[in-house]
Amino acid sequence: MAEIARSFHDLNYIDTLSCMDSPVHRIDPRAKLATFLIFAVCVVSFGKYEVSALLPYFFFPAVIIPLARIPARYFAGKIVFLLPFAVLIGIFNPLYDRETLLSIAGLPVSGGMISFVSILIRFILTILAALMLVAVTGFTGVCMALERFGVPKTFTTQLMMLYRYIFVLTSEGMRMARARDLRSVGRKGSGLKVYGSLIGYLLIRTWNRAQRIHMAMLSRGYRGDFFLRRPLRITSADIAFGLGWSAVFITLRFVNLPRIAGQLIMGVLS
Amino acid sequence: MSHHIVELKGLSHVYPDGTNALDDITLRITHGESVAIVGANGAGKSTLLLHLNGYLWPTSGSVRIGDYPLTKETLREARRTVGMIFQDPDDQLFMPTIFDDVAFGPFNLGLPRDEVETRVQEALVRMDIAHLRDKPPFKLSAGEKRRAAIATVLSMAPDILVLDEPTTGLDPLGRRQIISILKDFTHTRIIATHDLDLVLDLCSRTIVLHRGTVRADGRTLDIFRDDALLAECHLEQPLSMQGCPICAGKMKHGG
Fold first, then answer.
1. Is A189 within the bounds of a domain?
2. Phi then psi for B131, rounded to 5 degrees?
């Protein structure tokens, strides 16, 4: 159960980050969402053996993280935690794809090995981007931006409510788990059966709560529409942010900087 | 100007499972009154309250809010007239920030943005939580959440306030703050509670529910002096009416 408590704390933390103030936080959520989406699309659209061309994309987090004054260490921890999933996806590539594509210092490197590394880099870049987006925009900001981009209101409302009640639900789950732990006297024996009824009970509690919330919404005149204040205003700075970064990402997509740099250096040396 | 009255006539409610929660309740609460609804757990307090904003419909009998009987057609107006504050503020605060939550009602009333802004600010100041307007609800203390929940209803400018257990789970200071704020309200107030000291502070009239019926309805002091009635309905005199066991040297139980 310490696991739940920790995730809870994490979520809380990223929310705290999103309430901070910095030049990046102040940029319009739509500009940020668009920029991060273009970043992600560019990163995943490379061929499967691409490694060198991906590296310059680290420039983006390297600029944004210090500028937004959010702790890099937090993101590093998250990525290490999630990395096993990416490893699982790519781990068999070196076994299937044994054709040697290049050799480094006389050691042959197979295509599978390269594609594996490429998967890891893309994974790190995209997860980093997603986490950064939430940390500098806030979940609500992202939802609002999604809505402005034409995502159906029902969907964004669901997301927002889900996010709001994750905190309530986890604390309810934690209380139930604590009650179980205190009475199971350190034994873990009757695990599965107890978990079954715990989860069932949590579902009923959730259901009841949903009903009460709906009641509260109805009594305040809810008729299916959600209103958020903060009429989003795009300024020229927002546009510059979006266009500037997008131009960088798209250029990097077609121009392999490390290779050009390498060729230049080789040219100078020879 | 409507008359802020609430009138129940022969109100009965039977839940789908056959539980007879309310049985032939008749009462009338007039403009500006502050009325407590007390009774044991399961006496029917919450069921009664849920009839006042049309969340539950009577099995028989009628509900009248202000100038209109409560029907599907008048529901919208009734929900504006009756501001309902639930027992658990976490059920009432569902928006990303306190501002959005307090603005939820006024927006649904179709008010223009400026007016919403003014109303929200007024409600927040009234509840002494203006500094929390941009905070997400889960970062608030229980007392702050409670005040925020009241603000969400105040911003709709209701004529009648209905509160379900407004002081449970609050520390003594938080409780005191809520009481002193409620004291200043001029709305018609209906408060369901087990906190009988609060009743003594806020309500001149008390209605005692017992097993779904009105067991007593009268001046608060008269009711609290009736020991037999209180015992029958699982209630006790408010602490402030009981002699102090330490100063007066008299202890009711043991020791």
1. yes
2. -75, -10
